[in-house]
Amino acid sequence: MVEHACSPLPYVSFIIVARNAAAQVRRLLNDYLAQDYSPSRRELIFVDGVSEDGTVNVVQKFVQDHPELKVAILENPKQTLAPGWNLAIKSARGEIVCRVDAHASIPTDYLSRGVSVLLAQEKNGVVCVGGPMLTQGEGPWGRWIAAVLSSPFGVGNSPFRYDRPPGYVDTVPFGFYWKWVFDEVGLFREDLDRNQDMELHARIRARGWKFYLSPELKTTYFSRGTLAGFLRQAFDNGYWVMRTWRQSRWRHLVPFAFVGGLAGLGLASLLWSWARACLFALAVLYGGLAFLFAGKTAHRQGNCKYLLTMPPLFFLLHFTYGLGSWRGLLSRQKGGSAPIYSWFHPGHLFMMQDREREVLKVLKTNGFDRLENKKILEVGCGAGYWLTDFLKWGARAENLTGLDLSPERLAQARNRCPRKVTLVLGDAAHLGFTDGSFDLVLQSTMFTSVLQKAGKQPIAAEMLRVLKKDGLILWYDFYVNNPRNPNVRGVTKAEIHALFPHCQISLHRITLAPPLARFLAPYSFLLCHLLAKVPLLCTHYLGVIRKMK
Fold first, then answer.
1. pLDDT higher than 90, residue 42
2. What are the backbone dihedrals phi and psi of residue 202, each rounded to the nearest 5 degrees, phi first?
3. CA 317 → CA 167, 255, 310, 376, distances in Å?
């Protein structure tokens, strides 16, 4: 750590990273010029992200007009914030680094007060200090958006968004850092477009160091002045929060849960009255809180328009932020290392365990909980996975038969199954078995691969022919088309009844939609179990077909 006894004031590197901010950066440059901190003990590092609006020209003009100031202009070809901050930190000569957004404004004593607070708190393990950020907007939309971003209901318990007593916090805006901290914990992650500071601050806190918020260090942030810009920022923030969710605080994940709750209750309300009641209660609670906090702002501002504009803006902020979080979660799963059909992929594991539980329940309900003496045929056995499942459930190998049209798939089944399991290369429309040979005939996702409807009826007839009078057909197949695979076409309930006329048929929907299961299961099996109870979110029919007695 740097000793300060050798100089009256620590040297400060003031960093601005911007792109296409010509209209905003003039204000901040003038604020920097007006600082009461000695010009000999500070430097300005401006990093431009290849601006196209003359931002660099504004800064160059500032340098020409004020040759007494130490100013460095760097170019950031990557254009995003994190690489720009890292460039500036690497070139900074200061013992203290202060970074401020181009959309912000600072008071004339910001640098002197910031250095003073950081020095005073150094003995307490504080390595970064900042203060409350007052959000302002220009024009009607800007003012309403600023009011939403300044409300506890809008942004949660974020301490720097509104006045609060001094104390330790989890993060601060526009902070003063000891530069040595970056040598210890590393720089900003350049793979993140947003929330880079949140992720860095989590690393700093993990080392046991602290952040301190001081009311003396108030700044002003000028928010987006258009609804489109406001919503775009909300979506992006939500997206990147989920990309770094392990470093997030609970307030960052509330919109994610809010949107998920709305979606889940909305779908469930189509089927159950309790879900409609919960959805109505949530709407009343949310609306009541939105109007309560909007009313407080309207009273404080002396303008009743806030009461009308803030509630819908609250909802748009939370809903858009939540949508961004769900999008971020989905994109995280696309980068998973385990193949989607691997047992090490949580989504596949959940679906297989859920299917096994449901199949065993159906078998037991229909008196097939003792399988050791049951003759079982799987039509379209593929690589033999179901056959090995039946062995695990108690069936004997000599009573199992698998049939498939593909020699390659049948060879895989031969390698997987015991030798006593009978495997037959053949056509399901022409089964070479005598009538009434099997107690149970299984078909799993075979009918969806038979694209011609005329080709399905002979297979169904053959399955019934080889089934004993008191036997059952176990059906597991898609009832929806696969949008990514035109060779998988769902079989509807009406089609199943048409394929097996004069039969007793019992069907119910299972298997949470695979894309949904794959990106939710790594985070919550419980949530997957709950959603799997919603039939509209399931993609398969599981059922039993019996001959009429």
1. yes
2. -65, -40
3. 28, 9, 10, 57
Average pLDDT over residues 496-511: 95
Which CATH architecture fits 12-225? Alpha-Beta Complex (3.90)
Cβ count near 369 (within 10 Å): 12
> Which element (helix H / strand E) includes 137?
none
CA–CA distance, 492 with 513 (Å, rounded to integer): 16
420 pLDDT band (50/70/90 cuts)?
A: very high
Of the candidates 168, 14, 26, the one whose C-alpha atom is nearest the C-alpha of residue 102 is 26
Q: How far apart, in whole angstroms, are the C-alpha atoms of residue 471 and residue 332?
A: 46
Question: Could you count the other beta carbons within 10 Å of the beta carbon of residue 124?
Answer: 9
Phi-psi region of 382 (alpha: psi -120 to 50; beta: other; left: phi over 0): left
Stated as kind and residue range, the H or E segment containing 528 is helix 525-532
Cβ-based neighbours of 393, under 8 Å, separated by 6 or more: 360, 363, 371
Q: How many other CB atoms sit within 10 Å of the CB of residue 56?
A: 17
Q: What whole-number distance in Å separates Cα of residue 362 and Cα of residue 357? A: 9
* Side-by-side strand order, sheet with 422-425: 422-425, 400-404, 376-379, 438-444, 467-478, 538-547, 503-512
> Predicted confidence band at 3 (pLDDT cuts at 50, 70, 90)?
very low
Partners of 444 in the beta sheet?
Answer: 476
Helices then strands, each counted (H, E), the chain: 19, 18
Q: What is the largest CA-CA distance in the chain?
A: 101
DSSP 435: T
* CATH 3.40.50.720 given to domain 346-547: no
State the Cα angle at 523 between 517 and 528, rounded to 5°. Answer: 40
Distance CA 162, CA 153 (A): 12
Instruction: Spell out the residues 6+ positions from residue 256 whose beta carbon is closer than 8 angstroms to its own.
Output: 238, 241, 242, 322, 325, 326, 329
Q: How many CB atoms lie within 10 A of CB 286?
A: 17
Q: Could you tell me which of 490, 509, 516 has the C-alpha nearest to residue 348? A: 516
Tokens of 361: 């329940």
The whole-angstrom separation of Cα 350 and Cα 280 is: 31
Q: In this structure, are residues 119 and 10 in contact, taking their beta carbons and an 8 Å threshold?
A: yes
pTM: 0.53
- 445 vs 340, higher pLDDT: 445
Contact 151, 297 (CB under 8 A): yes
User: Where in the chain are the domains?
Assistant: 12-225, 253-334, 346-547
The rounded distance, in Å, linking the Cα atoms of 92 and 221 is: 25
Place of tokens 């309930």: 493
Q: What is residue 433's three-state secondary structure?
A: coil
Yes or no: say if 416 and 449 are a contact pair by the CB < 8 Å rule: no
In residues, how long is the chain?
549
Please determine whether the domains at 12-225 and 346-547 fall in the same fold group of CATH: no
